[in-house]
Amino acid sequence: MARASIAIHKLTSCSGCQSVILNMGENLLTLVQLVDIQHFIEAGVNNPDAQVDIAFVEGSISTHEDEERIRQVREQSRFVVAIGACACSGGVQALRNVKDSEHWASAIYADPGYLDSLADSRSVAERVKVDLQLWGCPISERQLIAAIRALLHGVPPVLPTEKVCQECKRAGQVCVLVSQAAPCMGPVTQAGCGALCPSFGAPCYTCFGPSEQPNCDALGERLVGLGIPANQVAERFVSISAGVKPFQNAWARWRIPLKELEP
Amino acid sequence: MNQTAFLPHRHLDKLFDLLHSDGFRVVGPTSEQGAIVYREIDTVDQLPAGLVDHQAPGRYRLEQQAHGRYFDWVGTAQGLKPWLFTPEQPLMVAREVAGGLRFEAVREEVPLTAVIGLRGCDLAALALQDRHFLQGEYPDPHYQARREQLLLIGVNCHRSAATCFCVSTGDGPEVGEGTDLVLDELDQGFMVQACSARGRALLVRLPIRPLAGGHKRRSKALRKQARVQQRALPSRDLRKPLYLARDDETLWQSVADRCLTCGNCAAVCPTCFCSRVDEESPLDASESTQVRRWDTCFNDEHSYLVGHVVRKSAVHKYRQWLTHKLAIWHDQYDRSGCTGCGRCITWCPVGIDIVEETRRLCTEVKTREPGE
Fold first, then answer.
1. Domain extent listing, chain B
2. What letter does residue B308 receive in the DSSP assignment?
3. pTM of the full structure
4. Does A199 reach chain B within 8 Å, measured CB to CB?
């Protein structure tokens, strides 16, 4: 049987998910024995036009170039796997999809006229057909390996859609929402990270996107009830995975427009 | 015949020394990330001296008090469950060998383990987990291996948290049967009761004194104080009202609207025992491990049958959890699955209260006209 070929493409992103692959150590050596890596710019392999079996796509559709590029990637790849919060949800840069963002460019850039980007940041699946999504900011090495292993076997990978709370409890962590009134997003966020932030006493930031059946209304109501200002509750929902519907709806419910808050 | 004596506070370390010299690791309460948790500990200094817990629906806080009592807290974040029914348990490994596959069961060496600090509700839950994992047709070897190595040191509660309702389930605040030693902590020391041959063998080697009349009187009063609880389930067997409530989905909507279906209640419940099995392989597929993980009836996958999630909504999930715990359990295990520890109330991120919900369900089901 011919070796499978893969490509790792980068759209608008911080390259953190590519870094996860580069940091796999022994698993990276095993991977290059199992597949031909045709394109992986962070590792110095530059052949973006290669026809491959599996294309991993990091980053969101945020520029005209990204739009063109993702159409090409789809045409030249058998399977397209979106990796990371940017590719799965639009990422941090999807914050500009929400209404308070008009003034940001001028607040940050000296000359925003040079910016050439789309009005919105979109997930890969909003532009082309995606065969699999691996969430995370960054992705989890463990999930990536399990997914590649399953794809090489020719079966769909099993990915958890349960809440972060489940992993948190299995790891024996103390709930930071209950013990510290911390605004933890674990109850509406998909598992996959192994409850990384709560294991350091910090609340969850939604890196792995919305879980199955996310009850954002009830969680938001609880956080507001704990005395956390409504605008801060709104912002908790649109940080890492800002572009997805359930989180945007929650943001819309609790946000107070910035201009109303101005003195 | 139970034997009781007095152990001065300053000599509790002698109990640790004895356990260590008998080859036990000691698992006991300690404070971590703002809560009392069971961890392997080496010395009495790691016990939560003077710490008391304040619990409410969705809330847990510790307060440092001036007294030096080690066991004045009431509830730990988790009970004994993770030490026996481990959250992630490898069951079996398959390896590729010449001519086929070799399957090997995973078996572990478990050290002798003494657990100190267990409450009546924890020990009643242990008896229920024993019933499920050991007394059925297929005893669970992983649970069994850990269970056989246990020595149990219970503590009678002298106060109750606001979330406690063990009096109504009949499981506390005093420790029931099945322990080796039971402690009542007084200001100057411990009333120590040996309840097994192993317990007696420990007790006689401790620097104990005979009990004084004041010790008994004081501990009795303190135990009485712990019986004053704010919460109570309507009765021990709730099959009748809950089986009626089960058939009316509208009764469950108000709690389902608040429920996050996060499964924290089931994860902290000392009697919940559901699991799933995941298959895990390294990248080179040289072997394959079956790993058993804690699961809950709040996960979609838990009721996934031939391409269909049977219990998809929060109404169905919460109803499953509550009716199984308080009603169906009677048919399976001859008693309710709840021991009144209140963990599901405290550790619910939105503070859903099983006692309040059960009382509401029982009341509303009664006031409905038949056929309505």
1. 3-90+106-226, 239-275+296-367
2. E
3. 0.95
4. no
- Closest CB to A30: pick one of B280, B284, B346: B284
Write down the residue that tokens 């058939």 correspond to.
B247
CA A201 to chain B, closest CA, distance in angstroms equals: 7
What is the C-alpha to C-alpha distance for residues B105 and B97, in angstroms, rounded to an integer? 16
The residue with tokens 């962590």 is A173
Q: Per residue in B308-363, pLDDT tens? A: 999 999 999 999 999 999 999 999 999 999 999 999 999 999 999 999 999 999 99
Q: Are strands B3-8 and B25-32 parallel, antiparallel or unpaired?
A: unpaired
Chain B nearest CA to A93, separation (Å): 28
Q: Which candidate, B87, B336, B120, B360, places its Cα nearest to that of B223? A: B120
The dihedral of CA B319, A164, A140, A183: what is its sign?
positive
Which DSSP category does A189 fall into?
B
pLDDT (tens digit per residue) in A192-246:
999 999 999 999 999 999 999 999 999 999 999 999 999 999 999 998 998 899 9
One-letter amino acid of B187: D
Which residues, 6 or more positions from B219, have their beta carbon under 8 angstroms from its beta carbon?
B156, B158, B184, B186, B191
- Residue A234 · residue A100 · CB < 8 Å: no
State yes or no: ipTM above 0.85.
yes
Q: Which of A41, A130, A123, A35 lies closest to A77 in space, CA to CA?
A: A130
Domains of chain A: 4-153 (3.40.50.700), 164-261 (no CATH)
Q: Do B267 and A201 touch (CB under 8 A)?
A: no
Distance of CA A232 to the CA centre of its chain: 21
